[in-house]
Amino acid sequence: MKHLRFWFDPISPYAYLAFEQLPQALEGLTYSVEYRPVLFAGLLRQWGQKGPAEIEPKRAWTFRQIAWAAHQLGIPIDTPAQHPFNPLALLRLLHACAPEGGGAPNRWQCEQVFHHVWRGGADANDAQRLAELRARLAPPRAPDDESVKQSLKLLTAQALEAGIFGVPTIEVDGKYFWGLDALDMLAAFLRGDAWFAGPAWDLAGIAPPGVRRS
C-alpha cells in the first residue's frame, strides 16, 4: 500500500478541489493519506512568488477557472467573502487537532476546514464561525498553544526543504505531484505506468539553462 502526503493550505481553491476529487481520482487503488497543513504564504515568500489572487488579472482568471473546474467535477464551491485572507487561525486549528508529539489531522477534520472556507461564501475569519468550527472539531490542544505554532512552522520548513513551492502538492515515494491537474498523473504512477519506471521522469525535470531575470 502506498502512503501519500497531501501538503495544503485551506486558502487555496485548488487544494480544496484536489482534496474533494482525490478519492474519485484514485478509485480502485489502495493507499493511505497523511494531511499536512502548511503556510502557503511562507512558500511564496521563499521562492519569490505572488499568489494567483495577488495579481489582479490572474485573480479574475483563477476564480473563473476554479468555478469551471468545480462545475466539471460536480464539486460545490463558493468564493469566501474575502480572498486572499490570513489562514493562520485555520492552520493552527488543524495542527491543534493533531496529537501532540506527532501525527496529523484526519480527513474529516480537514474536510470541515475546507468546507468552512469554500462553501457558503462567508468570511473564513469571522470570529463566531471560527468559534463554532473549533467547537465542532474539539481539538485536544489550544490553537494558540506554542507547540501548535511551532508545529506549523516546522511543517512549512519541511515543505521548503523538500522543494515544495505550491499547494496542493502530493508526495509519494519521493515524487511530488503539484496541483489539481496532476491527479491523473499521480493515479498513473500509482497504477504502475511504465513511464515512471524509466529515465523519463528524471530527464524531463532537467531543464536547459536559459535567460535569468535580475
Structural account:
The chain has helices spanning 13-25, 40-47, 56-73, 88-97, 107-118, 127-137, 146-161, 183-190, 200-204; strands at residues 2-8, 31-37, 169-172, 175-178. By secondary structure, it is α+β, with helices and mostly antiparallel strands. The protein has a single domain, classed as Glutaredoxin (3-Layer(aba) Sandwich), CATH 3.40.30.10. Strand 3 and strand 4 form a beta hairpin. Helix 1 (13-25) runs parallel beside helix 3 and helix 1 (13-25) crosses helix 5 (107-118). The radius of gyration is 18 Å and the shape is globular. The model has no long low-confidence stretch (mean pLDDT 94).
Short description:
With 214 residues, the protein is α+β, with helices and mostly antiparallel strands. The protein has helices at 13-25, 40-47, 56-73, 88-97, 107-118, 127-137, 146-161, 183-190, 200-204; strands at residues 2-8, 31-37, 169-172, 175-178. Strands 2-1-3-4 form a four-stranded mixed beta sheet, with helices on both faces.
Radius of gyration: 18 Å
DSSP summary: helix tally? 9
Strand order, sheet with most strands: 2-1-3-4
Strand coverage percent: 5-15%
Estimate the mean pLDDT confidence.
94
Largest sheet: 4 strands, mixed
- Shape assignment: globular
Number of domains: 1
